[in-house]
Write a structure and sequence with these properties.
This protein is of the alpha/beta class and 198 residues long. The chain has 2 domains: 1-30; 33-188, no CATH class. The protein is 33% helix and 21% strand. The chain has 4 helices and 9 strands. It has helices at 2-29, 57-66, 125-133, 161-178; strands at residues 33-36, 45-50, 72-79, 84-87, 104-107, 111-114, 118-121, 150-153, 185-188. Helix 3 (125-133) crosses helix 4. The radius of gyration is 23 Å and the shape is globular. 20% of the residues are buried. This is Lipoprotein.
């Protein structure tokens, strides 16, 4: 009888050890997540979309336009082999959105536009992001520390979702390298800069 009890106890211990190893493996295999969330109403819920399931940037725009941001927000999940990025772009619920031209940079796959007229090649991304998020030289073309910092992203309709993903990962990598605590928001826009004709 005593041997039976000892055997049962040993079996239970072995089974629970095996379960702990599985739990540790699951914990190790779970990827770290980084969130890029923007200003929002606390009561609104996120509707998650995996970027890999979309065909192009236009699909992202259609999703944003379709969601009633008085009730829900779009959250775009971007997954790599090592990490998951959750991006909640700014969704404009009202027709009026007040910002200064220098508070927004426009980024597409081959260029960056600052203060509506200064053009930079995409190779200048880290420098432009540093100026936009930190403005270490107090450049009047970039926002001051107390102003909004918006990063508008646009990808041509003739490019597939892989180009969108590459651009987002490049922007995120540069922001992470800067290690800044600046408060900023992403915007996904269909048209990029609207040219004003006088």
């Amino acid at each position: 009888m005593r041997k039976t009890i000892v055997i049962l106890i040993l079996n239970c211990l072995l089974i629970s050890c095996g379960q702990n190893k599985n739990e540790k493996k699951e914990a190790k295999s779970k990827k770290p997540e980084q969130n890029f969330l923007t200003l929002r109403l606390a009561d609104n819920e996120f509707i998650e979309f995996n970027i890999d399931t979309l065909s192009d940037f236009n699909e992202i725009i259609k999703i944003i336009e379709k969601i009633d941001c008085r009730k829900n927000y779009a959250l775009f999940k971007l997954e790599t082999e090592k990490e998951i990025f959750n991006i909640h772009p700014l969704q404009l619920c009202e027709d009026i959105f007040d910002y200064k031209l220098r508070e927004i940079i426009y980024i597409n796959t081959d260029s960056i536009t600052v203060n509506y007229e200064l053009k930079y090649p995409i190779d200048s991304l880290k420098t432009v992001l540093n100026n936009h998020l930190r403005n270490p030289n107090d450049d009047k073309n970039f926002p001051s520390s107390d102003e909004k910092k918006l990063i508008s992203i646009n990808v041509d309709s003739n490019k597939n979702i892989i180009e969108t993903k590459k651009l987002l990962l490049k922007i995120i990598a540069n922001i992470n390298e800067l290690n800044t605590k600046a408060n900023y928001s992403f915007m996904f826009e269909e048209r990029g800069i609207i040219q004003i004709e006088e």
